[in-house]
C-alpha cells in the first residue's frame, strides 16, 4: 500500500472512532478500549454503622411508619427464599457479614459525565476478598455494553469464583427519543457482563438465609415514599447513631413514578432543575421488585442517603421515586442491618445534585 493509501486508511479510522464515541454507538473499538477501573489505585475507606437488635428496630419502625401508612406490619423473621418470584435474587437470603458499598458518585455523572468511570463488580468482589458474596442494589448501568447511558439494577453473586448474574438494565427507548415521547427497554445482563458505571449503592453480604426485618405496609397517608418513611423513622429515633440497611422490596399493588436516564447530556447539568428536565419520567405498574440501600447519616463520607432501582417480569423498571396511587399501594420488603459502609472511589470534588 502506498503512502496515500495509509493516510486514507488512517483518516477513515479516526473518523470512525470519533463517530462511535460521539454518538455513543456500540463498537469493537469502544469495547476493547474501555478498560475497567483499577481498584488497586484507591483505598477502601470503611466506617462502622450502629447495629441495634432487630427486635428494637422492629419496634421503632412499627411506631414510626404509622405516620405514613394506614396499615403497618413489621416483624423480625426468617428470610424467605428470595430466589423465588417476584424477587428472583441470585442468593436465597441477605445475611452474612453485611456491609453497604458506595461506589463512585453523582459528580461523575453531572454536571458532565466522566466516561472512564467503568467498574467491574466481579473484580470488586475479588479485590475485597468476598466469596461467597451477594452484591445487590442501585447504580448506573454499563453504558459500554449497550452504547448509551442506562439504569442498573444489580443482582450479582459469586460462589467459589463462579458468577451468577441476575442484574438488569433499563434504558430510554428508542435511543434519542424526546422526553414525553419515549418509552423504555429493560434487559437482563449476560453472565459475562459484570460492569457498572459512575455510581452505585449496594448491599454486600454472603447472601445467606437468616433473620431479617420484614416490612409490609398498605395505603399511604403521609407525604414520604416507602424508603424515605423507613429512613426518617430510624433517624428520628436513633439520631446521631447512624443506621444502614440494604435489601429488597416489591410493590405488590398500585403504581409508582420511576425515572430512566437518557443518554449522557451534551450540555452541562448545573442545577437540580437541569437534571429534572433531562430525566425521563414514567408511571409504572405492580408488581415491581426493587433493590437498594439506605443510611440515616452521611458520616463525613459523602454518602447517598437512599437509592433503590426496580425491575419486573412485564418490563417496567427504573429509579424509584414514589407511588402515584396512595390509596391502592401495597409494599412488602425484606431488609438486613449493615455493620459498616465501604466507600470506594469517592469524587474529589462533590455536590448535592442528582441525589433524589
TrEMBL record:
Its main location: nucleus. This is DUF1907 domain-containing protein. It is found in: Nucleus. Monomer. InterPro entries: C11orf54_DUF1907 (IPR015021). GO terms for molecular function: hydrolase activity, acting on ester bonds; zinc ion binding. The chain crosses the membrane at residues 6-30. Keywords: Hydrolase, Membrane, Metal-binding, Nucleus, Transmembrane, Transmembrane helix, Zinc. It comes from Leptidea sinapis. CDD domains: DUF1907 (cd17298). Pfam families: DUF1907 (PF08925). Residues 60-344 form the DUF1907 domain. SMART domains: DUF1907. GO terms for cellular component: nucleus. It comes from the Eukaryota.
Amino acid at each position: 500500500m502506498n503512502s496515500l493509501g495509509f493516510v486514507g486508511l488512517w483518516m477513515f479510522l479516526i473518523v470512525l472512532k470519533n463517530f462511535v464515541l460521539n454518538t455513543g454507538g456500540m463498537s469493537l473499538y469502544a469495547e476493547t478500549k474501555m478498560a475497567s477501573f483499577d481498584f488497586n489505585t484507591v483505598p477502601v475507606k470503611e466506617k462502622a454503622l450502629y447495629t441495634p437488635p432487630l427486635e428494637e428496630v422492629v419496634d421503632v419502625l412499627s411506631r414510626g411508619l404509622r405516620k405514613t401508612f394506614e396499615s403497618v406490619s413489621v416483624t423480625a423473621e426468617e428470610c424467605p427464599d428470595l430466589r423465588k418470584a417476584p424477587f428472583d435474587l441470585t442468593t436465597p437470603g441477605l445475611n452474612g457479614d453485611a456491609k453497604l458499598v458506595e461506589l463512585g458518585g453523582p459528580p461523575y455523572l453531572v454536571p458532565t459525565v466522566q466516561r472512564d468511570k467503568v467498574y467491574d463488580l466481579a473484580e470488586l468482589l475479588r479485590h475485597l476478598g468476598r466469596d461467597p458474596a451477594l452484591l445487590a442494589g442501585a447504580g448506573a448501568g454499563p453504558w459500554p455494553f449497550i452504547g448509551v447511558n442506562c439504569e442498573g439494577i444489580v443482582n450479582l453473586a459469586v460462589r467459589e469464583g463462579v458468577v451468577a448474574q441476575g442484574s438488569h438494565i433499563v434504558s430510554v427507548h428508542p435511543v434519542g427519543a424526546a422526553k414525553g415521547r419515549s418509552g423504555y427497554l429493560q434487559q437482563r445482563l449476560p453472565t459475562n457482563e459484570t460492569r457498572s458505571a459512575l455510581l452505585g449503592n449496594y448491599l454486600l453480604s454472603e447472601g445467606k438465609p437468616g433473620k431479617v426485618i420484614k416490612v409490609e405496609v398498605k395505603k399511604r397517608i403521609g407525604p414520604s415514599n416507602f424508603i424515605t418513611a423507613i429512613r426518617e423513622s430510624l433517624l428520628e429515633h436513633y439520631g446521631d447513631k447512624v443506621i444502614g440497611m440494604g435489601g429488597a422490596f416489591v410493590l405488590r399493588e398500585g403504581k409508582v413514578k420511576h425515572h430512566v436516564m437518557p443518554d449522557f447530556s451534551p450540555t452541562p447539568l448545573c442545577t437540580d432543575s437541569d437534571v429534572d428536565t433531562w430525566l425521563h419520567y414514567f408511571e409504572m405498574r405492580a408488581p415491581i421488585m426493587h433493590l437498594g440501600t439506605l443510611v440515616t447519616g452521611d458520616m463525613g463520607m459523602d454518602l447517598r442517603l437512599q437509592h433503590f432501582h426496580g425491575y419486573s417480569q412485564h418490563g417496567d423498571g427504573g429509579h424509584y421515586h414514589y407511588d402515584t396511587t396512595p390509596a391502592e399501594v401495597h409494599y412488602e420488603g425484606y431488609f438486613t442491618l449493615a455493620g459498616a459502609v465501604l466507600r470506594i472511589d469517592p469524587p474529589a470534588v462533590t455536590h448535592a445534585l442528582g441525589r433524589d
